[in-house]
Amino acid sequence: MKNKMSYYILLFIAFLLLSACNTPNDDMKNNIGPIMYDFKEPVVFPFDVNDISTEIDIQNPDYLHQFIFHYYNEETTQKIKYIVSKVLDEPKDNEVSKENKTEYKLANGKSAYYEENTTSQSIWWENENGFLARFVYYTNGNTSELGEFKLDVKELVELANQVQ
């Protein structure tokens, strides 16, 4: 009888331990696992590209998902950044600010918005899955005027068309 009672107590303790191990805690609920995104990259550029790199912003993954593709010419210092970002839980932060930008139509019918200043040019659009996408073009680390290196707006529109 004593062995039988010990057996039931041991079985009960094992049940409690297994139940406790199977109960997810709050930290584990929020850690869903890897998040997969698939982005198209351009293959034709308005200048020769001889250095390509990719950067993933992981400083605050619960708030911002941002991917930056760098296309660079070391000789001319021309650089294009393709930036794709999404602010989580704030859909309005993923919309293009149209202020002081000129609207262009992409091949898929979406609107893209172009802006320029003396040192850079950019084109912005709302991408798939709620992402805000943009190409930013500049030379010499964005510290000098574009001058002869200024791109035609159509070249930036074509870059945007390639990644749709």
What does this structure look like?
- By secondary structure, the chain is of the alpha+beta class.
- Helices cover 22% and strands 31% of the residues.
- It contains three helices and seven strands.
- It has helices spanning 2-22, 26-30, 153-162; strands at 51-57, 64-72, 78-87, 102-105, 111-116, 120-126, 132-139.
- A seven-stranded antiparallel beta sheet has the order 1-2-3-7-6-5-4, with helices on one face.
- The mean pLDDT is 86.
- This is DUF4367 domain-containing protein.
Set down the secondary structure blueprint.
Layout: H1 2-22, H2 26-30, E1 51-57, E2 64-72, E3 78-87, E4 102-105, E5 111-116, E6 120-126, E7 132-139, H3 153-162
Antiparallel strand pairs: 1-2, 2-3, 3-7, 4-5, 5-6, 6-7
Signal peptide: 1-20
Organism: Aquibacillus halophilus
Protein name: DUF4367 domain-containing protein
